[in-house]
Design goal:
single chain; mainly alpha; 13 helices
Length: 283
Amino acid sequence: MYSSSLPRRIAMGILLAGLVGCLIAATRYDLVINQQMYSSEHRLAIFMEAFGWWTLYLPALLWGGFLLRRNGQPLWGALVLLGSAAAMWFPAFSYLEKRGWLTDFPLWAESILVVITVAASFLFAGIPGRRTAMRLSFLCGAGFWMMVLNNVVINAIKLIWNRARFDEMLFGDNFEKFSAWYAPFGNGGTSFPSGHTAAAAGVLLLILAADIFPMIARHKWMVGIFCSLYIGAMAVSRIVIGRHFLSDTIVAALVVWGLFVLVHHSKLWKSALNQLHDRLTAL
């Protein structure tokens, strides 16, 4: 156990040190980095803006399907299912329209996509195998509550920091509104921390999945690398597109990672895992 956990701890220490180092650098070079990297037409950044944050909401969508189809909670399941689908699609089309990728996309077409997404989640909940369905439902339920916690904490910080966004300052030629990342009560805005980066960190649910699915546990290193790369890709895309500073993305990642660690090591999570194990054993 020691030999397997030590390299993981070393890797995490290196990653944390790198993030802290970047945050220190951002204290001085936040604005300069954005000025050098800004590209409002970057296609991958636009795609990530529209869809990359879905990792936080997809588990909630799937959990709604399980509640509706398998867990005997049709009303709650329908609310979660419809709410998640709408929360994913309507902002996505708003982002795409703002970037000129879609023009005058009709509301009825958006609504059809929401309905299709709801139907797909309902069908997915019929996955064969009672044990597999129980594990997936449990994991998606955890993802739902992580989504709630993520949104509450990140938006609370946004309200306190009130930091202006780079592209808003750029378009208004109003760079005197720039404020350092460590200074709360800024000049108006929702830049700090990055909500998109925090949402992309919803992919960390895959690490929780290693506690439930043995196959994933055997490849935990690869899962960790994938999660880090995905969150990093979102962070870079937010800087490139001018919606956030480097410090916004780093703090978002650190905050969500901290929340994830607290949940992962909490008595509540361990107790829930034990209850899941007992139910699986009883089948």
